[in-house]
Amino acid sequence: MRPQLPVGRVRGHVVLVLWIVAVAVAYFTSAQVGLRMALVEHQVTPFWPPTGIALACLLLRGPRVWPGITLGAFAVNLVLGPQLPAILVIAAGNTAAPLVAYLLLRRVGFRRGFDRITDVLALVFLGALTGMLVSATVGSTTLLVAGALSPDHWLPTWFVWWTGDAMGVLTVAPLILLLGSGAKPRTLGPWRIAEAIALFAGTLAVVLAATAVAANMLFLAFPFLIWAGLRFHLAGTVPCALISSTVASYAASRNLPAFADLDLTTKMVVLQAFNGSVALTALLHATLTAQRDHARRAVDDACIQLTRAVTTLQQGHPLEGMTDLLHRLPPLKPPRAD
After folding, report:
1. Are the C-beta atoms of 248 and 211 separated by less than 8 Å?
2. Tens of pLDDT, residues 201-236
3. How far from the centroid of its chain's Cα atoms is residue 3's Cα?
4. Cβ atoms of 229 and 237 closer than 8 Å
5. 264, β-bridge pairs
6. Distances (CA, A) of 76 to 43, 92, 165, 301
7. Using CA atoms, how far apart are residues 61 and 337, in angstroms rounded to an integer?
8. Residue 336 predicted with pLDDT over 80
């Protein structure tokens, strides 16, 4: 008689397989969005959402979901070509990049809630800019060796590949981590919902208008990011950043007036400077605002407790009030000897 696996273990394997399939499907589906903005060889794009999905799933479910990334990357490149060996190498690079980013973030103690400035900086410089060097280098070099890319196009292709993967991390990963955090949203009244709709619609309208004129007007998106951070924190800034980056990347891929007179290198510099500034401003501003509000609530709570303690003392019950107050005060640190 064969030994039977425990029900819990079987359920765990089934859940893992479902997650792997879900990651593969999400990777492939989101890749179709990114490919519509391709600038090089119809497959290298300045905005690649699958990397953000891959890294977010690794942070949420751990490294065991990596086969889903590989399957999704393999399916995408199988449709695009070139030869099978090159497809396998590119898929391996697309898998290694988010894994490297995940390991780097775990190394520095990254927390998914973005409640510290160090978490934002870690995602930008380790998760996006450093981790995505792997996929860009492996992918562009593989295309060069396979004959699908000429040597003089290697560097522009590498730059587009790297920045596209990095922007996918900076714009898509925070949104998925926010949705997967399990935090319950505050009760939204009709006016609050109307404000959120106006915020997102205004962001979309402003960026669309900015890309439709030759003058460089993309900076008009930043007041909406500030508005989102002040009123909605990450729940507002992350969608606004995603809207802004997606519209700007699409405008660059279609040579709309804001990017029409620029060569590929200049276009990429302008686009990625905008996308990077949007992502960094959104995450930093939302995090700082959330920290400020948290500190204000802590002070308010301390004032309420102090008021209650004073009231208790005045009523002749000193121990009850002082005990509750002392439990809520932070521990005193001894003076440091210089």
Report:
1. yes
2. 999 999 999 988 877 788 899 999 999 988 888 888
3. 44
4. yes
5. none
6. 10, 12, 15, 53
7. 45
8. no
Residues 6+ apart with CB under 8 A from 70: 91, 92, 94, 95
Asked whether the beta carbons of 86 and 63 are under 8 A apart, the reply is no
Closest CA to 50 of 139, 203, 164, 190: 164
CA distances from 134 to 92, 126, 334 (A): 10, 12, 47
Which residues make Cβ contacts (< 8 Å) with residue 41, sequence separation at least 6?
143, 148, 149, 157
Q: What is the pTM of this model?
A: 0.80
What is the mean pLDDT of the segment spanning 176-197? 78
* pLDDT digits 0-9 by tens, 97-111: 999 999 999 999 898
Sign of CA dihedral 72, 101, 275, 194: positive
Q: How far apart are CA 146 and CA 214, in angstroms?
A: 38
- DSSP letters of 14-36? HHHHHHHHHHHHHHHHHHHHHHT
Point out which residues pair with 44 in neighbouring strands. Answer: 40
90's tokens: 């590119």
CA distances from residue 167 to 51, 160, 272 in whole angstroms, order as listed: 9, 10, 8
Q: Comparing C-alpha atoms, which of 28, 33, 286 is closest to residue 177?
A: 286
DSSP tag of 48:
-
In the structure encoding, which two tokens stand for residue 83, read together? 């030869």
Question: CA–CA separation, 253 vs 51, rounded Å?
Answer: 19
Phi, psi for residue 333 in degrees, rounded to 5: -100, 135
